Amino acid sequence: MKKIILSMILFSSIVCNAQTELNNYIGIDIFQLPSTTLNANYTIEYKPYLTPLIEAGYTINYVIGDNYDYMSYFLVDRIDCGCDGKVLEKQTGGDIKIGAIFNFRRDFEKQHFFHVGLFGTNSIIYEKGTYQSNWLEYDETPNIVPIKHTIYILSSNYIVGYEFRISKKLKSSFDLQYSLSTKNIDKLYTFVNFVPGIGVESYKNYRFPLLLFNLKYQL
Question: ∠ CA(119), CA(213), CA(150), 5° rounding?
């Protein structure tokens, strides 16, 4: 949490001290839309080699989005199971991501280049569903009770990708993000955990790969 607060202070300082000739962009990630996740990011081309970023996102309900989140099926080992008697009705939440992108270029004239990035993400997820306590006892009358909770999860995120210009005002980037979460992830209900901002966990290993396709418009 302290690292994220320090990153927010640093980013705010950069924004306040940014000169008017610096290029500012507002963007969205297209690849997260099928998971019912809406997000927006703000970047400043502070130096040719440095682009600070802040992003906010909100997932409407991943229980619905899971049916269309084909990227996660490609990236992680998905396990279809009863989750020890738990059935989810809703997975919703938001995230704040702060960090910087380091560009492999020496001047602003270069518009097509590779980059890497380092971020910290603070996610909140609300899960609601039912739990059958005697799910292994098939001859018994089902004992189903409602369950719900809210979990906060911190993670570090690393990206590698390529940025290119589409038009005078429009840019895009294609990235592979890899995230490491805290063990608080174990409190979530399912075996394959979804967390806003970092994607889907591959069976209980605290690792979250995610493909990003960002479109950003120059302000």
Answer: 55
